[in-house]
Design goal:
about 400 residues; alpha/beta; Butyryl-Coa Dehydrogenase, subunit A, domain 1; Butyryl-CoA Dehydrogenase, subunit A, domain 2; Butyryl-CoA Dehydrogenase, subunit A, domain 3; seven-stranded mixed β-sheet; globular
Length: about 400
């Protein structure tokens, strides 16, 4: 990286301890976006973490991004989760796209377009959001298309549809939208291969944000609903060439694991707090140190075992993620995603039980960490249930195999 990974992690840790942590409680309580945190991230060049070096960025790859994001999650989960939405828009369109080996002409056109988008991030501090979820989405119902539709017109598309749980609502400059492109005269039904991935500028005619935001956790992500009514998007606002998003989802499936680092960081924060609390080192705590208690020692030992298990599978999956992964690597990815989301919440549960009743006061971060940690298992496209389903099915079936029909 430019600068190196340890330097960036140290910078994120320092910003988190000195600034982000002190703002987290108020942002959580009011469900307000952490604008001040993003001013700090922007001032330190971190919005360009995953922008290629030749375009003025830090050129973080998949593994490097994950390590930085985990440290950010350790400091402030909601900031880390929204930072994911921005950073992976850069990561997917650079390192991951390049791994596909696009045709030279397609690659040249993609390079021309993304150079403009990266320059906006590096020079102007443009912030991206990345909403996927759709209310009653056709994809969730099994159909291979998005509910949001892109109709080709001269110079681009008109987008119509809705997205929900759109993090950074009202804060982002660009919203990256997945939509199914209509192909007039096409001799086959629309499919996932017809997905386009484009950036819609905030304030575009026909673009609006609606709905309230008062959730259990991750409240400072401000993930409201987006509505698109005949929103025009120019061709040059593609973050990937036509058809590439579907290729990437199939050939680089770990692209959907970038939520994991946030929850690894949240779990680490809960463990760190527990140790400090039992040692009597948390500023303002009213209880005496309790580290001499054998019960507390056993509880901390259990937390550490779970934390080490989580880190072990996480580090391995992040390190082996690549284009066209073999089956065992992909299955380990599903297992890792499930393990991180469930163990993170379990570690936070144990932290509250171990620290005791005083620790659930809002002046301490544990109750917020617990609420934030519970949200991870619900997040598409790899929810906990989907991961279990894929693990079970793909462990028992090879590609192309199906049960014989009943006689």
């Amino acid at each position: 990286m430019t600068p190196d990974l340890d330097t960036v992690i140290d910078l994120v840790g320092r910003l988190g301890r000195e600034r982000f942590a002190g703002r987290a409680a108020a942002n959580d309580r009011e469900a307000t976006f952490p604008f001040e945190n993003y001013a700090d991230l922007r001032d330190h060049g971190l919005l360009a973490l995953c922008v290629p070096e030749e375009h003025g960025g830090m050129r973080a790859n998949f593994y490097e991004y994950a390590m930085v994001a985990a440290e950010l999650g350790r400091q402030d989960g909601a900031t880390a989760l929204t930072f994911n939405m921005h950073s992976v828009s850069m990561l997917w369109s650079s390192v991951l796209c390049d791994d596909l080996g696009l045709e030279p002409e397609v690659q040249r056109e993609h390079e021309r377009r993304r150079a403009v988008l990266y320059r906006e991030v590096v020079q102007d501090g443009v912030l991206y959001a990345q909403p996927f979820s759709e209310p009653g989405t056709k994809l969730a119902g099994g159909a291979p298309v998005w509910g949001t539709v892109a109709t080709p017109v001269e110079g681009g598309w008109l987008l119509n549809g809705r997205k929900q749980f759109a993090s950074l609502s009202g804060a982002a400059d660009i919203y990256t939208i997945t939509a199914t492109e209509e192909r007039p005269g096409q001799d086959r039904p629309a499919s996932f291969a017809d997905t386009i991935f484009v950036g819609v500028k905030a304030g575009s005619p026909g673009f609006s944000i609606s709905g309230s935001w008062d959730p259990l956790g991750m409240r400072a992500t401000v993930s409201r609903d987006l509505e698109l009514v005949d929103v025009f998007v120019p061709e040059d606002r593609q973050l990937m060439p036509r058809g590439v998003y579907a290729q990437l989802a199939r050939r680089w499936p770990h692209m959907f694991m970038t939520l994991c680092p946030t929850y690894v960081g949240v779990a680490q924060a809960a463990f760190d707090f527990t140790v400090a609390y039992l040692r009597g080192e948390v500023p303002g705590q009213s209880t005496a140190p309790r580290r001499s208690s054998a019960t507390k020692q056993l509880a901390v030992a259990e937390m550490r075992v779970k934390l080490d298990q989580m880190w072990a599978v996480f580090l391995r999956s992040m390190a082996e993620a690549r284009v066209d992964p073999p089956k065992e690597v992909l299955l380990r990815g599903f297992s890792t995603q499930y393990s991180v989301m469930e163990l993170s919440n379990d570690i936070c549960r144990l932290a509250i039980r171990t620290c005791g009743g005083s620790s659930i006061q809002r002046k301490y971060p544990l109750e917020r960490l617990y609420r934030d940690s519970r949200c991870g298992a619900l997040m598409l496209p790899w929810t906990a249930e989907i991961c279990l389903e894929r693990l079970g099915y793909d462990s028992l079936y090879e590609r192309g195999e199906r049960d014989a029909p009943a006689p």
